Amino acid sequence: MAIVPMTTKMTSGLLAPLLAVCTHIKAQHYWRQCRRQYTFQPIYRTCGALLALELLTAVSHPSAPDKRLSPEHYFAALDVRKRLQIIQEQLELLQYWQPLLTRHGLMVSVNIDGIALQALQQHGALQRQIAGMPYLRFELVEHAGMALNGPLQQIAGAERLWLDDFGSGLANFSAVSTWRYQYIKVARELFTLLKQTEDGVQLLVTLIKMMNQHSEGVIVEGVETEQEWLLVQRSGALAAQGYFLSRPAHFDTLQTLPTRFSMPAA
């Protein structure tokens, strides 16, 4: 009487790994079909001067081109070879705009994960390309640094690395203490949390003071209102980024980008 249920259970157990493989293959196929579109978002010093641009990757699938997908999930689904191809694609885009970037003395940050950063060290062609782009900066999160096989000082150009998303759960005090990053970016989620109370604001100021001691400056992400901009200006941070200052824009608008942020007229 128990033979049929037992057989069904055994069959299910045998099929489970196969179904998992099929699901993985289907997901990989989905992500490989996705398309990329590049935009930038400016980063302004608290004095209003333009400091840098962040290159952003918008991801969509042909079945729903107007629906934006998570860039983090997209890159996590790609193998390292494909990630390096995308980095090369991003570098070629920046090189097209290199005369303008150089003329205005702007830095451009590009997000990278630890595995791709490690593989980049063995890619001679990309290393030579990067050597001719002194304005290029890579943004790294703590879990990416932990993925490296060796210390950050063995990474070419490590002194120009930025720490991204401090306070997101991936980048925290251990990341700050292990390496002197050029700039540290405070995650939008942390800024949103701390700005809500006076005690939170005081903690933000204290954190920024501490991070200033371990870097050349702090950039606060997620500034979306005039009040938040004024708060960042008196916090001790070097610069800010967010929708109040500028929404992401296409590169064909780069020539008309204001080099100084002016408060919108009331």
TrEMBL record:
Signal sequence region: none
Gene Ontology molecular functions: cyclic-guanylate-specific phosphodiesterase activity
Record-annotated EAL domain positions: 18-262
InterPro entries: Cyclic-di-GMP_PDE-like, EAL_dom, EAL_sf
Record Pfam families: EAL
SUPFAM superfamilies per record: EAL domain-like
NCBIfam families noted in UniProt: PRK11596.1
Name of this protein: Diguanylate phosphodiesterase
